[in-house]
Amino acid sequence: MNTEERSFPNSSKNKYMKQIKIKEITLRNWRGEKERTTRFNLDTPTSICGDNGLGKSRHFDAFCWLLFGKDSQDRKDFELRSYDEQHNVLHRCECSVEAILIVDGEELTLKREYKEQWVKPRGQVEEVFSGNVTECIWNGVPIKVSEFKTRVSENIIDETVFKMITNPRYFTEKMKWQLQREQLLQIAGVKSDEEIATDNEEFKKLLDELKGKSLSDFRKEISSTKKRLKTELSEIQPRIDQTQKMMPEVEDWNALQSEIDKEEKEIAALTEQVTNIEKRNEAELEKDKQTAKEIHDLEMQRIQLEQDELSRMRKEADTANEERRQIERKIKEAHERLTQVSIERKQAETRRTHLKQQVTNIEVKLNSLREKWRAINASEYNGSDICSCCGQRLPENKIAEAHNIFAQNKAEQLRANNEEGKSLAAQRNLLTEELSTIEADEKFAETINSIEQNISELYQQLDRHPLVQAPTSLEVPTNEMKNLDLKVKELRDLLDKAEAGDNPVVQIEKERDALYDSLTKLKTRMSHRSTIDKAMNEIAALENRGRELAQQVAELEKREYTAVSFIKKRIEDCEQRINAMFKSVRFQLFDYTQEGNEFEVCIPIVNGTPYGVTNTAGQVNAGLDIINTLCQFYNIYAPVFIDGAESVNHYMGIQSQMILLQVTQDKQLVIK
């Protein structure tokens, strides 16, 4: 059978393709065969037919053991010797496998014998069994096992390559997916990141930005930075809200300033009146003037103390409210988490219900198939044994032929029924496996209950941290203020005594003191303007910072999108180059998590169906497709043993020698 030539970027292709064929193989007392020689077709497929247990697969095991000392299941020297009817090992007989191979047109005879060693201990008459040794013969010349192994590897075929190109199921079912993936990448070659980014300027900028870092580390770095910026951004608005709550009420500052200016002018006028009066008695009034000045300084000092105390109390209130703000932020995050978990719970329940329904539907189909199987199995031949033309009984050979046709049809229907049942069972198992991975509703309920309990505890904490309002005026003066008030009172008493009588200065001072009190209150209110300005500046700074953070997050998301697009491009390129090397089989080399992050896989897909649920014929031909590609890559063809060949009607064309192991009703092995 011929197949088209394919080119490979990393192929070690020589001037010729090595061709290995097996001409004949002889088993002597090896795994139940007393002595058997099987000859194979060199140019057409060889069919080894017979009922189960007659030794069809034994040929492949023997061929593997001959070359590598292991059977097709990779078991070394496992149950090699034959047994008698009482299940006793047959001793003192040759246990060997011998074969004639055609390697590049030249015959090569190989033999491997599992030989017993018998020794006669000192002082005993009879020999005793001391163990087994392996002896190898190369074209009639005995050689060491190690040399035999080296010659097989160098002159015939490497063991790993042999496994991949002689068994259609080895690559897909025996190899780990990591090794499958490694082999495919070795065949297809790997494009560099620079080659992938050739036609995309954004990708080129991304590679320049990586500077030796892996894409995975680059994305983790972006994700970490983005998370930090979003956390800071989420705290901006609560801080703005808290600052606005702490701000005093806005007043008509121009009107307030006008009142201050007016009262200051009135105070200045009254002061001038006092000065004029004092000029009449400068000596007396000089002392009173000094007293009045001291009173004024003390009052100004008291105003400053009050403003300082108010500022301190505002800072304390802001500090006291910081823990409350943290609790409010945690409450907001808990509510967001509760919403997210509720959504995930609903999605899980929907998916769980869908999967259960699919499993139920498959069970219904399986039950129907079982009933159909019973009906087919119970059916019996009901044809007539009498000729419809002459009325005489049909000849025995015709009756037997009719019975045989009925039996074959019945067997075919049962086989088809079993194949369909296996396929449905495989689908059900996949659905059940996915169903087991979905998080239980009780787990979601537990999570939701935990979050709600956390929210309740946070609200309790919030109740224990009431909002502290910053005072706008001082209700209780400090001791220092009280002392200043006391000094002012004492000085005023002195002035009152000095100016007892109809002294007009006393009345003027009273009016001026009233104005000073009013002016103090007005300046206290005016001081709120600087507090508001400071708060507004802080809010503006927070808003600017919020815009900066939003811009930075947007830029990070753009870089993250470019990285994701590059990874997707690399994945598509890799899968496209690998899948171009095969006819019917395709490989999915990457999959994605729910968060959109890719991870490596190696899933063979046959005509759109995952390999694991493809029918036997599809799996065998997929294996042959893979063998074709591997043979051309390694420049070597070797015999392909196809077990279960009775399930396949059509085979993909290959250049290797084909040996079909078919289950038939023959009670002895038949070689075709």
Helicity level, as a percent range? 55-70%
For the biggest sheet, the summary is: 7 strands, mixed
How many individual β-strands?
14
How would you classify the helix and strand content by structural class? alpha+beta
Radius of gyration: 49 Å
Measure the end-to-end span.
Answer: 17 Å
Describe this entry's structure for a reader:
Strands 1, 2, 4, 5, 6, 7 and 11 form a 7-stranded mixed β-sheet that branches. The chain has a 4-stranded mixed β-sheet with strand order 12-13-3-14, covered by helices on one side. Strands 8-9-10 form a 3-stranded antiparallel β-sheet. It contains 16 helices and 14 strands. The N terminus is likely disordered. The chain has 2 domains: 229 residues, Rossmann fold; 317 residues, no CATH class. It has 672 residues and is an alpha+beta fold. Helix 9 runs antiparallel to helix 15, helix 11 runs antiparallel to helix 13 and helix 11 packs antiparallel against helix 14. The chain is elongated, with a radius of gyration of 49 Å.
Short recap of the structure:
This protein has helices at 56-68, 145-156, 159-166, 170-174, 177-188, 193-196, 201-210, 215-234, 236-246, 253-280, 282-378, 396-437, 441-463, 479-498, 504-579, 616-634, and strands spanning 18-30, 33-39, 46-50, 96-103, 106-119, 128-138, 141-143, 585-592, 598-606, 609-610, 636-637, 640-643, 658-663, 670-671. With 672 residues, it is of the alpha+beta class. It has two domains: 18-190 and 616-671, 3-Layer(aba) Sandwich (Rossmann fold); 237-553, no CATH class.
